[in-house]
Give the backbone structure.
Amino acid sequence: MSTQDLRGRYARVDGRQAARGWWLVPLLAAPLLPVLWSTADVTPVGAHAPGVDDRVLGTELPLHVDNDRVQVWLDVFQTTGRPEFARILERSGIYEGMIREKLRARGLPEDLIYLAMMEWGLSPWAVSRVSAVGMWQFMGPTALQYGLRVDEYVDERRDPLRATDAALDYLEWLHARFGSWYLAAAAYNAGPGRVQQILRSHAGGRTGDEDLYWEVLDHLPPETRDYVPRIVAATILANDADGYGFAASAAAPYRFDRVFVPGGTYLARVAGALSVDPQVLRNLNPHLTRGMTPPGEIYGVRVPVGGSPQVVASLGAVLAGPRDSADE
């Protein structure tokens, strides 16, 4: 069914209708240089990954729209949930280019971005009631399994780049296991072991069919039953946001240069040296949970694009000076 057809079917929702249930230059040791700078880490946005066939770039998630649960969420996102959905779409502009670039490079459906949107609105600051963290909502053990650093100073579950790489590794593995993006999404939410057991008990252990999700839907955990319908509804609306009356995101994309600084450097000091608001540094480095680089190692801090050797020299002079009490 075309997007135009879908718009005609779903766009006019009675506002009175009740809603029904909602991602270097190699670092060389240089003791006399407190700071090293490089522009090689600007995140590319919007360019095709080299060597990826255009047919792969058009890969999409299957959209089962003739479904009551999908209809519920189409209605919700256009009525009672419209303000929140609009805020999520606005925020998506920050990370959308980066995530889509990584999806294209792997030949994965670009619509998987909406899984992250439905997890926690693409917020790297998110923490769930069960302590899942970041825009991809990683639990600690899974984060470590997929190579993310989680310690006293760095939590890469909050790193938009590193967490996206890990999430796509995980989703690729889940899809290989279940042969279905719907089941992979359900397993991302509920855990692969639980989904496997449900398939054994209620689908004869079958995999490899998108329809299986709907067959076992009522046996999934309550929080997972609406997970795929929400993703499908979000995909339909977001892929034609203008047509459904949602404003396009004006948020600046996630881009940065990288400055290597000594361990124990506070983001506030870097911000001062660059004459930017400290919140800018925190937004670029949400994984630095204490607002400082981990002690005992040279660490790359993300700074706004446009840094220069002169700015880095200024930063080095600041770092060489005495700390003030506000940094303690």
Notes: The CA atoms of residues 117 and 190 lie 17 Å apart. Confidence is low (pLDDT under 50) at residues 1-59, 324-328. The first strand starts at residue 36 and ends at 38.
